[in-house]
Design brief:
The complex is a heterodimer. In chain A, 72% of the residues lie in helices and 2% in strands. By secondary structure, chain A is mostly helical. The two termini of chain B are 14 Å apart. The chains are: A mainly alpha, B mainly alpha. Chain A: It comes from Natronobacterium haloterrestre.
């Protein structure tokens, strides 16, 4: 992007001088041969009123950008700034009356043991989801990469959860492992000797929700991991196979380092998913319970905002979540370029 | 450009892999010519592992589908399931419990979001790639930084804003806040940058206006990419939960994902009708899953898989 991009064909004239500089003499002659003198005259004439043309081009460019910028300003930036402002206030009467409390809401959060617990649970939840989904999808993707037929069939059978609505995943798991009537409950109890009672056992509830959340996120991870594996140069693949080392040590020692930029990207995206994309699971499966065991930050925020109408405190929690997403995005931009937040 | 070299690398990788494994394990010439699979132990184990993995991934849905064919939450033999019961369940869930209405709302919301996002983002990407204007990098930065503002970060003011605008229970609230898309603008920009500069230069010099250029040059050259991002947008929009839950309280305007929650409330007030719940879940999954399966090729290309 350092040099002038010749794609910038609008927004003012290209200019004869620049045209010559960019195409060179031979390019210009070729152009003249192709488009004739008339094209060149037109080009030069445009250069003659370049200021007007330039201004017109600039306004057209901003006109084209206007819808995106307008929606961003009104529905993204303004509410975000408003949340920051609200976080310094205490609100009464459903937000109708505001009192400045400075950092009061943040102090409340800092001293609230329930909030501390929610933060700790969210971190543990994100770690469980990230490790679980990436381990499974790495293994599945590597097997997919290694087999030499049936790949497209396996691929679609492994990526479909990308389309799975979180509410569906949550309700299906709520049923499957329902303590009294779940189809898989007896199977799990028989296999592990545990009593499935996650409606009252916080630890179990945490893992049931995490497994449902992992299930939904597998498709997305397989897509990116397979894409990364496919980009490994053929020569490396051959060398790895000739080395005669086992499949799993090949995966860990050769492929994982090679695709580590994608894996880092996925760590960031899965963390964002665990923080922001799992609300439906909590809402449908546990309501944050039992005893706050699945009360992740976004659910706590939702409750404060819309059940207890504590808009100031909820906005302070929004600002904390903004800090989280900023750090994650920074990590991603800093350490793995060329990627973007697909699917948001 | 990079996609080209990737495909080449893939093609090389798979042919050479076929050749080497085939050559070592079997000596039949047909193996090399037709590329028949070499079934050694490691390959068999890989297939077994994959079959196990994809079966486990499908298992919850298979059970859910089976339950939706019966009348109770448990069944001891397949004879308890029947097509008539299934027809009754799906009919009830769609029409008696309004999932049909919720699905229509979801569909309308998702279609509006896809078309609107695409239109708005195509214009923005056109400006960013093909125009010279001051503060271009700053503007692009402003668009990209919206990635850091997911709904929970602005939930309370967004809710108040939509309420102040009188948008509660409206498609405006369900769709307009989603129209600005950093992802879509970014992907389209990347794609436009991969279109040869020589082509667009002659377009300008031939005096083609920007909108005609977009309609007759850029869009036809971006069909695959546009299909891919449309699938991403459709699935993303269909799977929204928190925002519709908040901004819609009139049941006739509700979307399918939240409809499952309402279904839970409705049926649980009487007998727990799990077959109906599972039927509701299956119908909610069908549209995004169908879109994924039908458009898997452009989707995977957009993600850089093929």
């Amino acid at each position: 992007m350092g040099t002038r991009d010749t794609r910038e064909i609008y927004g003012g004239s290209l200019g004869v001088g620049r045209f010559l500089r960019e195409r060179g003499l031979r390019g210009t002659i070729a152009y003249l041969r192709e488009h004739g003198v008339r094209g060149a005259v037109e080009n030069a004439r445009e250069d003659g009123r370049s200021l007007l043309g330039e201004l017109r081009g600039i306004s057209v460019a901003y006109l084209l950008l206007a819808p995106t910028l307008l929606v961003s300003a009104v529905f993204l930036y303004y509410p975000a700034l408003e949340a920051l402002e609200l976080s310094f206030h205490q609100t009464l009467f459903f937000g109708g009356e505001r009192t400045w409390v400075g950092l009061g809401n943040y102090e409340t959060l800092l001293s609230s043991s329930a909030y501390h617990e929610s933060v700790a649970i969210t971190i543990a939840f994100a770690a469980t989801v990230v490790v679980g989904v990436m381990t499974i999808s790495l293994i599945v993707s590597f097997l997919l990469y290694e087999v030499d037929w049936g790949q497209s069939g396996y691929l679609i059978a492994a990526i479909w959860p990308y389309a799975l609505p979180p509410a569906v995943a949550g309700i299906v798991f709520l049923f499957l492992i329902h303590p009294s009537i779940g189809t898989l409950t007896a199977v799990i109890e028989g296999a592990t000797g545990l009593e499935v009672d996650w409606f009252s056992n916080g630890r179990q509830a945490f893992f049931v929700v995490a497994i449902a959340a992992i299930w939904k996120q597998l498709g997305y991870n397989v897509i990116f991991t397979v894409a990364a594996l496919n980009n490994v140069p053929a020569t490396l693949k051959e060398a790895a196979e000739l080395d005669g080392i086992g499949r799993w040590s090949r995966l860990v020692r050769i492929y994982v380092p090679l695709i580590s930029p994608t894996l880092l990207f996925l760590v960031v995206m899965n963390t964002i998913y665990a923080f922001f994309g799992t609300f439906a699971f909590i809402d449908l499966m546990t309501q944050g319970g039992p005893g706050g065991a699945t009360n992740i930050m976004i659910f706590d925020l939702y409750r404060n905002a819309f059940e207890f109408n504590n808009h100031g405190l909820a906005s302070a929690q929004s600002v904390v979540l903004f800090a989280v997403v900023s750090v994650l995005m920074y990590v991603q931009l800093r350490f793995s370029d060329e990627r973007v937040h697909y699917g948001a | 450009m990079s996609r080209h070299s990737n495909t080449n690398a893939n093609a090389n990788a798979s042919t050479s892999a076929n050749a080497s494994t085939g050559g070592e394990s079997r000596r039949f010439p047909i193996d090399l010519e037709r590329g028949l699979p070499a079934l050694d132990g490691a390959t068999l184990r890989a297939h077994a592992g994959l079959l196990l993995a994809v079966s486990l991934m499908a298992l919850p849905l298979v059970i859910a589908a089976l339950i939706s064919f019966g009348t109770r939450a448990t069944f001891t033999s397949v004879s308890e399931l029947s097509l008539e019961t299934a027809a009754q369940n799906y009919h009830d869930v769609l029409f008696r419990y309004d999932m049909g209405q919720y699905m229509l709302n979801s569909l309308l919301m998702s279609v509006i979001v896809v078309i609107g996002k695409l239109a708005v983002s195509l214009l923005a990407a056109l400006a960013i790639v093909y125009y010279r204007f001051p503060f271009k990098n700053a503007v692009f930065g402003v668009v990209l930084l919206t990635l850091m503002l997911p709904v929970p970060v602005r939930i309370v003011p967004l809710f108040q804003l939509a309420a102040d605008l009188g948008w509660a229970n409206s498609f405006a609230a369900l769709t307009i806040p989603y129209l600005a898309s950093a992802t879509t603008v970014f992907l389209l920009r990347q794609h436009f940058l991969s279109i040869p500069a020589s082509l667009v230069e002659s377009a300008k010099l031939d005096g083609v206006g920007p909108l005609r250029f977009l309609a007759f040059v850029l869009i036809p050259m971006s069909k695959g990419m546009i299909a891919g991002v449309s699938v991403i947008m459709f699935i993303y929009s269909w799977n929204q939960y928190l925002w519709p839950l908040l901004i819609v309280d009139d049941q006739s305007m509700q979307v399918a994902q939240v409809g499952i929650r309402l279904l839970q409330g409705v049926v649980e007030s009487g007998d727990i009708a799990w077959p109906l719940m599972m039927a509701g879940s299956i119908v909610t999954l069908v549209p995004p899953l169908a879109v994924l399966i039908i458009f898997r090729k452009p989707l995977l290309e957009t993600f850089g898989v093929e």
